[in-house]
Write a structure and sequence with these properties.
5 helices, HIT family, subunit A, single chain, 5 strands
C-alpha cells in the first residue's frame, strides 16, 4: 500500500506508468490486448492474483463505452482460464472496488481483480493476524502465467 500511496503523491498512476515501460518483471504486465491489459498485483492477496485494467484512465464502469466493458469481461475470462491451467484453484474472487470508500487502492483507474482461491486458504493468518501468506514469490507468478499465456 505504501508503494501505491507514494506513487499517487508523485502524481502518477501505477497502471499508466506500467504501460510506459517494456513488459517484464519491472512492470509486471503479462499481456496487452486491444483495449485493456493484464498485470500482476504487486501486493497480491493470494498466489496468482492478477488484474485486468482498461488502457483508458477512468474511475467508473459507466465512463467506459460498451465495447471496452465487453472486452474487459472477455479478458477476465481469459485470465481465469490461464489461472485454472497454471494453479488449479478451487474457485475465484473476481471483482471491482469502485472508489476509495469501496476499498480501491487505485481509485482513479478502474481495474478488475482476479484472485484464485483454494479450499481452506483463509486461515487464521489472514483472518485474525492480518498477515498474508504467499507460497510463491511475485517473479515466479509472473513467469509462470506469462509462459502459459496463449500466444
Amino acid at each position: 500500500m505504501q508503494y501505491i500511496q507514494n506513487h499517487e503523491k508523485n502524481g502518477g498512476c501505477v497502471f499508466c506508468d506500467a504501460l510506459k515501460m517494456a513488459d517484464g518483471i519491472e512492470n509486471l504486465v503479462i499481456h496487452r490486448a486491444e483495449r485493456a491489459f493484464v498485470i500482476c498485483n504487486r501486493f497480491p492477496y493470494s498466489t496468482g492474483h492478477l488484474m485486468v485494467v482498461p488502457y483508458q484512465h477512468v474511475s467508473t464502469l459507466e465512463a467506459l463505452d460498451q465495447v471496452v466493458r465487453h472486452d474487459l469481461v472477455d479478458l477476465v475470462a481469459r485470465v481465469s482460464e490461464v489461472l485454472r491451467e497454471v494453479y488449479h484453484p478451487d474457485a475465484f474472487n473476481i471483482g471491482l472496488n469502485v472508489g476509495a470508500a469501496a476499498g480501491a487502492g487505485v481509485a482513479d483507474h478502474l481495474h478488475f481483480h482476479i484472485v484464485p482461491r483454494w479450499n481452506g486458504d483463509a486461515n487464521f493468518m489472514t483472518v485474525v493476524g492480518g498477515t498474508r501468506v504467499l507460497p510463491e514469490d511475485l517473479e515466479s507468478t509472473y513467469r509462470r502465467v506469462t509462459a502459459a499465456w496463449p500466444k
